Amino acid sequence: MNGPVVDISGYELVPGTAEGPLLYSDVPLSFWGGVEPITGEVIDRHHPLSGRRLAGQVLAIPSSRGSCSGSGVILELILNGQGPAAILLERPEAIITLGVIVAEEVFGQSIPVHCLGTEAFRSLAGTTHVRVPGTTAALPASTTSQITLTDGDRAMLDGRHGDAAQVAMRIVLRMAAIEGASELIDISQAHIDGCIYTGPGGLAFAERLRDLGGKVAVPTTLNAISVDQRRWRTQGIETGFGEAASRLADAYVDMGAAPSFTCAPYLLETAPKRDEQIVWAESNAVVYANSVLAARTMKYPDYLDICIALTGRAPKAGCHLDRERQPKLRITLPQLPAVDDSFYPLLGYLTGLLAADDIPIIDGIGHLAPDSDDLKAYGAAFATTSGAPMFHIAGVTPEAKDAQDFRSLALREVVVTHAELRQAWGELNGAEVGSVDLISLGNPHFSVTEIASLAALCIGRTKHPDVAIIVTCGRWTLEEATRAGHVEELEGFGVQFVTDTCWCMIVEPLIPRHVKTIMTNSGKYAHYGPGLTGRGLRFGSLSACVEAAASGQDTGAIPAWIN
User: Fold this and answer.
1) CATH number of 429-562
2) What's the pTM value of the predicted model, to 2 decimals?
3) pLDDT per position as a tens digit, 14-29
4) CATH class for domain 5-132?
5) Shortest CA distance to 201 belongs to which of 81, 307, 310?
6) Helices 200-211 and 163-179, interaxial angle, to 10°?
7) Active site residues
8) Is the pLDDT of residue 141 over 50?
9) Which of 431, 440, 449 is nearest to 469 (CA)?
10) Looking at the chain, which residues constitute the CATH 3.50.30.10 domain(s)?
């Protein structure tokens, strides 16, 4: 041990004591796609802690970011002994904390999680060893006793609606207290992200709720799962993994969820309407629902999603409230000519970094008239690098249709330069220019219109024999595209369609072992892919991806609009 031991004094989000070496970063971390759940290694190759291992360390980060599935990774790390000894946060957050709460409530294992505040957190820079003593301090106005309960809430909490609802209500109330909610609200639908297989802990959690008699109280859809449930055996997926992932999906279906298996639930006929109070997890779906559909949901962590679905009750906090949907910063773009479709995921990636946890309003792209696919690509990349639950685009998104909206607010101002766009382009293109072995499309799941656009680009072209091209999409989307004739056309070109799962879960052998470089049009996958697959990633427009599929090469050309 080098240096003195520093005692930590902060607000408890999860109680407990710990001592150990300090692993500090001032950059938020997504545990899903950022930390390997079996080994505890930080695998986000864009993060300052890349390559470090969490076991036995006291981890200090400002907050989480990115995927709602980070709670599942935390749960697995705690259960397999590879997690940090404690977690110190600059500000309260839900995803990391919820994973620890589930470990404590359901499995009787836990680690302390403390919120320090900005000054105390930043003072840790340079500290080598810390002690987290037990404390009774809690966040102001954040105890479950201060939450007003209805008779129905009390009935669930007392176990009168069964054991599963009782466990779920306890977890909901603990998270409501952390969010500062004074009451719960009814929700109309849920979308479950916890059906992604992160390890045996998540499977045990779902099967325990099912075996306790859990049944969803509202219409509920399921996110993409970790395998193509109908075809994983023929795809060569390892039997143990395929069976566990399929069992997990079945547990949620047994509790009454629809087997939609898509990370783009806004493409379904059940998509919510404006101001509808919902509970969605899956980071890209959350920001799309709030921003583009103007529905109302917080960025719900995995496992809290099913707890709320089982009770039908959610914390009255966050983006459920008008005041929490207002922007805190304005991001202004340079003058831009016509752009291609790579602009939107690139901009989402960059503005997510600039926004951090703050909801932004983006000025300067209304004249480009982005469509729903553009906004989907933007939102997915934004949700990857930001912890914010939504965004506004002046003149585009429903709550900012008028370019003068929010002008009366005192907002932090950020001006994006062409140089920053070029830098972000370089960050997403980590692999060297040259040969491409695999084209990855559909993160988030492709829409029918994206499949049609891909078909139009492939007409009259021949795929290079050494390049694979895979599209992931939902079952309903594949059926619609098949009826339109696009699937037959694209399969003739050499496209492989995979349903139920998505690129953040796809591994070998769907990604052939010989593949060294993957090209994608997804800002989300360009960020997560290197850590998840160990491969180099190239990023570009859909047209550039088709060119690479035909030639076997990515030329590395930078779009003219960046310059």
Assistant:
1) 3.30.499.10
2) 0.93
3) 999 999 999 999 999 9
4) alpha beta
5) 81
6) 120
7) 67
8) no
9) 440
10) 5-132
